[in-house]
Write a structure and sequence with these properties.
The chain has a domain at 1-43 and 52-57 and 65-164 and 301-345: Rossmann fold. 32% of the residues lie in helices and 19% in strands. It has helices spanning 6-18, 126-133, 156-163, 181-192, 197-210, 226-238, 256-279, 295-301, 319-323, 328-334, and strands spanning 78-79, 86-97, 100-111, 115-119, 141-146, 149-150, 166-169, 244-248, 287-292, 304-309, 312-318. Mean pLDDT is 83; it is low at 1-49. The structure holds adenosine-5'-diphosphate (ADP) and magnesium ion.
Length: 345
C-alpha cells in the first residue's frame, strides 16, 4: 500500500486542486450525446452480470465527437471472453485534461484471478486509468467499478477502505530514501494495521525473501540497483495481502534480462497468491494489472491483454486470442513490429 507515499501524494494534492470534489459536482466539458446510448461491447451481457461469456461483437459504437470513423477504423471493439467476472470495469469513461481528451468512451474489463495488461504507446492514458481505479482521479463521465462497486460514487471512508484492497507498484518503487528496506516494507503494516513488531517482522522478512531481497533488509534505497528497488516496491505492495495489484510500467529502466526476471517474479507471486486465495477461500482471486508499453513483457507475462489507443480499447481478450487476432493492427502491434502498414499517430 503506497498511498500518501512518493508521487501518489502529489497526485492527491493535484486531484483536490484540479478535479471536481465529487462526482455529483463534476462538470462535463465534452458532451457527446450521440454516444450516450451506446453499450460497451463487453456489456452485451449487461454491466450487472460481471461475466463476459458472449463472444459476439456488439453494434459498433460511433467514434467520439470530433473524431472520424477513419481514426477508429482499427478499433474492432472485440472482447474475447475470459469466462471470469471482471474485478475492475471501466464503463464508457471519458476524461479530459483541458483540451487533451485522454479517455474517450473507454470500456475495459480486468478479469479476476488473471494477470492483465493494459498496453499502449506512451501518453495514451494508461497511468490515468490506474489513477481512476483507486479514486485518485475522477471521470468526467462514465463509471469505474471495483468488485462491482462504483469508485467515483464511493464515500471517502469507503474509498479509504477500498484502497486497502490494492497494492500499487510505481515505476521506481517509490521507496522512502531515509528508511532502510525493512522499514520501507514494514511501513504499510505499521500505518494500517495493529500488528505487533514480531508479526510485522515475520511478514516483512517473508515478503523480502519472496522477491529475493532476504539479505538486504538493512540496506538503504540508494545502495540498491534499480531492479532491486523495484522488487522492494513489489514486496511493499504485497504486505497488506491485496486483492488487486497494480504495476505501472514495472519494466521501465530495466535491461532486458532484469525485465524478464521481473516478469517471472510477477507470475510466480501471482501463482502463490492464487493458491493462497483458494486455500483461504477468499472472496476474490488475486487480480494483477500490469501497465506497459513493452510488447515483450506483455507477450511473456499476460494472461489477458487490453490494447488501449485513442482513449478506447482496440481489442481485448485472453493472450492466446489476442496473439491470434485477425485484426492487422493488433497483429502488428503485438508482434512488436515498428514498421508496417499501420502507424500509431
Ligand atoms: N493530472 C494531469 N493533469 C494534466 N494532464 C495529465 C494529468 N495526468 C495525465 N495527463 C496527461 O494525460 C496523458 C496521458 O498520461 P498517462 O496516463 O500518464 O500516459 P501513459 O499511457 O504514458 O501512462 C498525457 O498527455 C499526460 O500529460
Ligand atoms: Mg504511465
Amino acid at each position: 500500500m503506497t498511498f500518501g507515499l512518493g508521487d501518489s501524494s502529489n497526485e492527491r494534492a493535484e486531484h483536490s486542486a484540479e478535479e471536481p470534489a465529487s462526482p455529483s459536482s463534476r462538470s462535463d466539458p465534452e458532451p457527446e450525446p450521440e454516444n450516450l446510448d451506446h453499450e460497451a461491447p463487453s456489456a452485451s451481457v449487461g454491466p450487472s452480470s460481471r461475466v463476459s461469456v458472449v463472444d459476439e461483437p456488439a453494434p459498433r459504437p460511433a467514434p467520439p465527437s470530433g473524431a472520424s470513423e477513419e481514426e477508429y477504423r482499427w478499433h474492432s471493439y472485440r472482447v474475447y471472453p475470459s469466462g471470469r467476472p471482471d474485478a475492475i470495469e471501466f464503463l464508457d469513461v471519458y476524461k479530459s485534461f483541458g483540451r487533451a481528451r485522454i479517455l474517450r468512451g473507454l470500456n475495459m474489463g480486468l478479469p479476476e484471478g488473471m494477470v492483465s495488461m493494459i498496453i499502449g504507446p506512451s501518453g495514451t492514458g494508461k497511468s490515468v486509468c490506474i489513477k481512476h481505479m483507486v479514486g485518485l482521479l475522477y471521470p468526467d463521465r462514465g463509471d469505474i467499478l471495483v468488485h462491482g462497486r462504483s469508485v467515483p460514487n464511493m464515500p471517502d471512508d469507503d474509498l479509504f477502505e477500498m484502497r486497502k484492497k490494492f497494492g500499487l507498484l510505481f515505476q521506481d518503487g517509490a521507496l522512502f530514501g531515509s528508511m532502510n528496506l525493512f522499514d520501507n516494507v514494514a511501513f504499510p503494516l505499521r500505518q494500517h494495521t495493529e500488528k505487533g513488531e514480531d508479526e510485522v517482522e515475520d511478514i516483512v522478512m517473508r515478503r523480502l525473501k519472496e522477491v529475493g531481497l532476504g539479505d538486504a533488509s538493512d540496506k538503504m534505497p540508494n545502495e540498491l540497483s534499480g531492479g532491486m528497488r523495484k522488487r522492494a516496491g513489489f514486496a511493499r505492495a504485497l504486505v497488506l495481502e491485496p486483492d488487486i495489484v497494480l504495476f505501472d510500467e514495472p519494466d521501465s529502466g530495466l535491461d532486458p534480462v532484469r525485465t524478464a526476471l521481473l516478469g517471472e517474479l510477477i507470475l510466480e507471486i501471482h501463482r502463490d497468491m492464487m493458491e493462497e486465495a483458494k486455500a483461504k477461500q477468499k472472496p476474490h482471486l488475486p487480480t494483477f494489472c500490469v501497465i506497459t508499453h513493452d510488447i515483450l513483457t506483455a507477450r511473456r507475462v499476460a494472461d489477458y491483454i487490453n490494447v488501449l489507443w485513442r482513449g478506447r480499447i482496440v481489442e481485448a481478450g485472453p493472450s492466446e486470442d489476442m496473439l491470434n487476432s485477425d485484426n492487422p493492427f493488433i497483429r502488428q502491434f503485438l508482434s512488436g513490429e515498428s514498421q508496417g502498414p499501420l502507424t500509431m499517430d
